[in-house]
Amino acid sequence: MASPGPPLPPASFSDFPEDVQLSILSFLRPADLAVFACTSRGSAALCGDPRLWSAMCDRRWGSKTLICSWAAAAAGAAGGNPFDVVYRALDRWDGLIGFWRRIGRGAAGTPPLVLFEWGPSSVTGSRVSPSPEPGSYGVLKTPFLWIGLSPGGHQVSFVRPSCPVDLVESLEKLASGASGFSDSDLVPVTVSFMGSNHFVVEENRGCCGVSRGADEFGSSDDLMDLEESSSSPPDRLMADIYQYFANKTSPGGVKAFRKQRKKERDRLGRRRWEAEHFVKISDCCPTPARPLQGLWKGIWENLSLDFYLVTYDDAGGIACRKVGDASEPFSGYSPIFWTSNTVYLEHPFSNEEENLYEGREHVQPLTLHCSETERVVSRILRINSSYDLVVSDTSSSSTHPQNVEGRIWEYDTGTFGFGFLRNNYIVDLKHIAKDGCLLDAVEPSSQGSYL
To answer: Which CATH class for the 13-92 domain?
Structure first.
């Protein structure tokens, strides 16, 4: 029997074929790639290979957007590797995807709920509002903000206050530098993040209020100057305060300051977009441990559709607030009910609980057939408090126990309804979105623009 030969030396990473090396490296994060690139010149060449960054983009966002379209939009990026630019841009904007809520008072009729979604080569922000049709679960989605890449690989963002249906198509033509295309209604803006859960959209005054095609943006240095020159409202406010007090110490300082501000206003012209602040709605979907959590929609007694946000606090309490028109007092984030009691009543229920449920009418669309409204109550939760004593005009205020007591009926379908003992109806709530897609979406063309 022949004796075995000497053991083979262990294979190193460089012994693998190049395509295998790139496939392995595509599982790493950019920070890990930077470390690996420092080990040798060959490693540095691999880490800069466009095929690697293309695979990294495709692995992370390939099922959500078209990576090749993003790379084509940023074909003129410095360094000759558009996929590197695309990866860093998508990584920065990935946190935008989902629901956000506008904070602060806004113009009348401005919906505070905003949904960001991936497009083929852009990120689109849409205002989400209830359909104006009475007794309907329809949800109106109106795009108003577009974020993409210029041919130089820099961020370009636009809003259109009166948004047409073809906003995304128009803006993609604009950013791609389509010849002869222009839209004077588009307003260039800057999207500035304040942490991971707060951002502000403000007009990019450096563009003089005129939207321009991508071939007119100028050099990359000019673009960087425009992005950095637009400061957030708190920073600008502090700068004005310091300048005001500095001018107070010099003769004629206040007068000079006012002249300077007037010149600036005259130069930039009238502001076409007022800054808007948004905060992220992190827990917008229910979980097995928190089945009531998330964004919901329900039809009220007057057959109007409203949006509701149900949250759990650290102590286990449950709060429900209405997300409505930001221009009206309290309605932008109006509290509806809360409860600290999270112990459910399980089946079988007492006769009293059966009578409470069966003696109430479900508020539902008029076109819904009875066969579609069959519900099976799986368990019941007591509401031990409402906000009627805090927020006026939501309903009659009284200290009578029946005015602050109610029930939450959880159905076997994963949805629920709520009602108060003082009323004889139940508001049944449905999901606004599922797996990131709006349910019962209504096209703006059929309802008109409501921005």
So the answer is: mainly alpha
